[in-house]
Amino acid sequence: MKPSRKTLFRSLLLLSVLFFRERAASQTEFAKLVWAEEFDYAGLPDSTKWNYEAGGHGWGNNELQYYTAGDTQNVKVKNGVLEIIARKENRENRSYTSVRLQTKGKAEFTGGRIEIRAKLPPGRGTWPAIWMLGTNIKKAGWPACGEIDIMEHVGYGKDSVFGTIHSEASNHLKGTQKGKGIFIADPYEQFHVYSIEWTAEKIDFLLDGVLYNHVVNEHLSVKEWPFSQPFYLIMNLAIGGNWGGKYGVDDSVFPAVMEVDWIRVYQ
Question: How many domains does the chain contain in total?
Fold first, then answer.
């Protein structure tokens, strides 16, 4: 028997009410601001909050850039915004330079709502990412340490961003990673808020408050859910690599700049 329009309307109304109740509960759950970076200064990133990871060894993905440390040609804060700048220039054995910042030992989190307001760089071959790794990475190795990709974008896919988790059981080497993408109309012209809501039971990925990937803790083992330990934050702008360089690199896009307005963590 086909449901009536009234029944369908009531069902949709109920679903909407339940959704907004859940979102309101989530906002209440993550009400306490525990860490923030507003970039309300000028110069290099705050050394009490950020570390550099330097080098040009491909970073496990056959990336083409050399990551510098403390070089204002590749990273700086001005007008309240962090700029991560990739340039076409030779450095040691690489043809590009960029920056990879992380917070290990300075800001580490287990759960919470993590929000980053950012504007992405255009151009084929760019691979900006905002992500997290488990602090036990040296002992456990990757992917056993766990990885949470809050936002990834590849320049040849102009209309999409992606949120993904990796673990020993679910990772891209096996093709079992748990990730999804979402359409984004203007990642290069407008700032957007990329975020996760992370509890003991799930990790949700959101774009401007819209949920697009929901990963559930099935309570199997640490191989599936290594996300009950502290993680640290990473921001980088890679060039080329297995994913970002799938269709080559357009050298006319440099310098390419990822801009970050603020980062806020609620628990």
Answer: 2
Q: Exactly one of 63, 115, 152, 197 is catalytic; which is it?
A: 152
- pLDDT confidence of residue 3: 58
Let me know the angle formed at the C-alpha of 228 by 211 and 28, rounded to the nearest 5 degrees: 45
Residue range(s) defining the domain that contains residue 113: 32-266
pLDDT band at 29 (very low <50, low <70, confident <90, very high): confident
| Known active-site residue 152 | yes
> Is 53 known to be catalytic?
no
Structure tokens at 116: 């980053």
257 and 152 in a common domain: yes
* Two tokens, residue 196: 């996760």
Which of these is catalytic: 83, 115, 147, 168?
Answer: 147
81 DSSP assignment: E
| pTM (2 d.p.) | 0.89
Comparing 145 with 3, which gets the higher pLDDT?
145
Among 95, 96, 102, 64, which residue's Cα sits nearest to residue 244? 64
Task: Clarify whether residues 148 and 185 are in a common domain.
Answer: yes
